[in-house]
Write a structure and sequence with these properties.
The protein has about 290 residues and is of the alpha+beta class. About 30% of the residues lie in helices and about 20% in strands. Keywords: Nucleus, Protein transport, Transport.
C-alpha cells in the first residue's frame, strides 16, 4: 500500500508529432503516488538516480552502499511513482545522518568530497570542518545529508509535498527517539552552465505543446553567472542557506567547442535544520499545485 496516494494530479504536456498544429495542445493527466522506499524494488532505480545526481563523480561515492543506506530507513524519505508500488521511482527525497553513518563507505566518501570541494571557500570550509571533521563527527552537532533527485521531466510541483512529508517524518522519528536531530542540513545538487550565446538561445520561446525531452536542461532560472540549477527548488533553498558553493566535477571531461550537451557541475548548500519548515513554506509559495 502507498503511504500517501493521489495527493495532487499534475497536467503534463504530451509530446506532439512535428506534423501536428503547434496551436493544438494535448494534456495528459498523471497521478503521482507517494511511497516509502521499498527495499525489494527500488535498489537499482536509486542507483540510477544517484548516478544522475553525481554525474561524472558518481564512481567516487559507493552507490551500492548509498542505495542500501537509503533503503535501510524506509520510514524516513519518499519516492514518487506513477504505476504502483512495484514500479520504479521517478523521484526520491530523503535525509541521511552523516554522523551516525560516518563509517559507511558512501557517507565517508561524501564527507571527504564535501570538505575537499569547499576548500575554495574558506568560510564554508571552516564551518564544514567544524561539523564534519574528526572533532565535529564526535560532537552532538549532527548534519543531515539531503538526497534529492528525480527524472528530468518530473514537475517541480512535487517538491513541496516531498519536503513537507520529510519534515513530518523527521519529527515523528524524533518523537520515537530516533537519531534525526540535526543542527544542519547539507544539500548536494547539480547545475549546468551556459555561455551567453547558449543563454540567448535557450531563453527563446519553446514550441507550444512540446514536453521537455529527456536529458534537456530545465527552464532557465535567474542567474548572473550563467550557472543554473537542474532542480528549480534549489533557488528557494539558496535563499535560506548559510553557504552555497557551485563547483566543477572532479572527473568531468572538458566539453569540446560546439559539442552537443551541457557543461554540468555540482552545488552544495548548507542550511540550519531549524529552517526546514520555512523551506517547506517557501516551496509551497513558489511552486503551488496546478489548479
Amino acid at each position: 500500500m502507498a503511504k500517501r496516494k493521489n495527493q495532487h494530479p499534475d497536467n503534463l504536456d504530451s509530446d506532439d508529432d512535428d506534423d501536428n498544429d503547434p496551436s493544438e495542445r494535448s494534456l495528459v493527466n498523471v497521478d503521482f503516488d507517494f511511497f516509502d522506499p521499498h527495499p525489494d524494488v527500488d535498489y537499482l532505480a536509486l542507483k540510477r538516480l544517484a548516478t544522475q545526481l553525481f554525474q561524472a563523480d558518481a564512481e567516487l561515492f559507493h552507490l551500492n552502499d548509498l542505495a542500501d543506506l537509503i533503503l535501510s530507513q524506509p520510514l524516513v524519505g519518499t519516492t514518487v511513482k506513477c504505476d504502483g508500488r512495484e514500479s520504479d521511482p521517478y523521484a526520491v527525497l530523503t535525509v541521511l545522518n552523516m554522523h551516525i553513518h560516518q563509517n559507511r563507505p558512501a557517507i565517508r566518501a561524501l564527507t571527504e568530497y564535501a570538505l575537499a570541494k569547499s576548500s575554495v571557500d574558506p568560510a564554508f570550509h571552516a564551518i564544514l570542518q567544524n561539523l564534519l571533521g574528526p572533532a565535529g563527527l564526535a560532537s552532538q552537532n549532527h548534519v543531515g545529508l539531503i538526497f534529492s533527485e528525480r527524472l528530468i521531466n518530473m514537475p517541480v510541483q512535487i517538491a513541496p509535498h516531498m519536503y513537507r512529508m520529510l519534515a513530518d517524518e523527521i519529527q515523528w522519528a524524533l518523537d520515537d527517539n530516533e537519531p534525526y536531530r540535526f543542527t544542519h542540513l547539507l544539500f548536494i545538487s547539480r547545475t549546468y552552465h551556459l555561455s551567453p550565446e547558449e543563454e540567448a538561445e535557450m531563453a527563446g520561446p519553446a514550441p507550444r505543446g512540446k514536453r521537455q525531452k529527456q536529458g534537456a536542461a530545465p527552464p532557465l532560472q535567474s542567474s548572473t553567472s550563467g550557472t543554473y540549477p537542474f532542480h528549480p527548488e534549489d533557488d528557494v533553498v539558496k535563499t535560506i542557506a548559510l553557504h552555497t558553493l557551485d563547483y566543477a566535477f572532479s572527473k568531468a571531461q572538458p566539453r569540446e567547442e560546439d559539442a552537443f550537451g551541457l557543461d554540468m557541475g555540482g552545488r552544495m548548500m548548507l542550511v540550519s535544520a531549524d529552517r526546514l519548515r520555512e523551506l517547506v513554506n517557501g516551496l509551497n509559495q513558489a511552486y503551488p499545485p496546478p489548479s
